[in-house]
Amino acid sequence: MYRSKIAGIGYYVPERVVTNDDLSKVMDTTDEWIQERTGIRERRYGQKHHETTSSMGAKAARIACERAGIEPSEIDFIIFATLSPDYYFPGCGVLMQRELGITESEAGALDIRNQCSGFIYALSIADQFVKCGTYKNVLVVGAEMHSMGLDFSTRGRNVTVIFGDGAGAAVIQRSENESRGILTTKLHADGTYAEKLAFINPGAHGGYHMDHLDEKVDYGYPPADTYGEIFITPKMMEEGMTYPNMEGQFVFKLAVTKFPEVIREALQEQGLQTSDISMLIPHQANLRISQMIQRQLGLKDDQVWNNIQKFGNTTAASVPIALCEAWEAGKIKEGDLVCLAAFGSGFTWASALIRW
Ligand code: UT7
């Protein structure tokens, strides 16, 4: 077995800045509410019709490749994590491959649907491939274009104000130094509460999971013996059922339990302590969540990277964007112990320990 490392990282966020005040012009919300509850001041939105999840992913990927000292054509395998794909299918992995102009290599492309934990899940898969010697250069991307699928009426305010667009990428390669690189990854899931944070329609569920909803919903499906109108019905469109929903407080309570748990699990396996962590990169879900984790782990302010204030919650992109920002700011140095952690829809949660 080899050890794998992050050989290059990059991120891209779109130019357009959307402030809390901008949102308060289209829905009943305030800068004060958003900052107090989430820490978010502003987020970025991609340029509609000119940018997509896969095109932003490609921009981040190019930077990651350059920093890893490889051409995109040298990538052996692509892993793309997103919950806001360009198409229902095919996935963003192949679209980004085309965008990067590397279809000739016919490198495999895998899409990951693990929402906020997507990047760490993707990293873990890349780690296995590189450790085993299957692939030399694996490109791991987390990207989201949330702004195309949010409810900008007051009805959607509890979700919409939180999310932003962006992309982060990393090239995973074999580490020359056995003691450096990805030490471990821990992945978990519990589908019991799948609907507590979900984007249900369009989908092929046909109302099947109704028992798991707090209230019965009439999706407006035609009679069961008719064809068509499976993914989306006129009623869903008319009544705004085609947006993400979240039971915020429920998610919050689980997040502050599962984050420290999965971080400690990884540390314990490696015989390390919380005090060994040089930099914690938590998924940027809510500044209050990050602060609670920081307190629980006894970390200082300069040991936890937060950028939700500027970018909001970019789901699968949030961990690689934050990691890249911290690295660019010179806050991650050779030999540092970097911990990545995430919790989100599924529920899925995960951590990774990297000796940089
Ligand atoms: O990344 C994936 C994982 N996601 C998370 O980890 C998110 C976890 N949850 C959270 O971050 C928080 O629960 C939220 C930020 C989503 C919400 O904060 P909260 O303190 O839990 O607020 P709440 O949902 O309990 O709502 C409190 C009040 C409600 O009004 P009433 O019923 O008290 O009159 C909401 O209707 O705030 C209202 N509200 C808003 N008011 C102004 C909800 N959204 C907004 C808004 N602006 N945008």
Record the SSE blueprint.
Layout: E1 4-12, E2 16-19, H1 20-24, H2 31-38, E3 42-45, H3 53-68, E4 77-81, H4 92-99, E5 108-112, H5 118-131, E6 138-144, H6 157-160, E7 166-174, E8 181-189, E9 197-198, H7 234-238, E10 245-246, H8 248-269, E11 279-282, H9 287-297, H10 308-311, H11 318-328, E12 337-344, E13 348-355
Parallel strand pairs: 4-5, 4-6, 11-12
Antiparallel strand pairs: 1-7, 2-3, 6-7, 8-13, 9-10, 12-13
Helix pairs in contact: 3-4, 8-9
Bound molecules: oxa(dethia)-CoA (UT7).
CATH architecture field of the domain at 3-175 = 3-Layer(aba) Sandwich
The residue ranges in which pLDDT falls below 50 over 5 or more consecutive positions are none
Distinct ligand kinds: oxa(dethia)-CoA
Number of DSSP strand runs: 13
The coarse overall form would be globular
Overall pLDDT confidence: 96
SSE pattern: EEHHEHEHEHEHEEEHEHEHHHEE
Helix content: 25-40%
Rounded to an integer, what's the Rg over CA atoms? 20 Å
Going by helix content, strand content and strand pairing, the class is alpha/beta
- CATH superfamily placement of the domain at 3-175: Thiolase/Chalcone synthase
Strand coverage percent: 15-25%
Please report the number of helical segments: 11
Describe the main β-sheet briefly.
5 strands, mixed
What is the C-level CATH assignment of the domain at 3-175?
Alpha Beta
**For this entry, what is the oligomeric state of its chains?**
single chain
CATH T-level topology of the domain at 3-175: Peroxisomal Thiolase, Chain A, domain 1
**End-to-end separation:** 19 Å
Give me a quick take on this structure.
This protein has a domain at 3-175: 3-Layer(aba) Sandwich (Peroxisomal Thiolase, Chain A, domain 1), CATH 3.40.47.10. The protein is 30% helix and 21% strand.
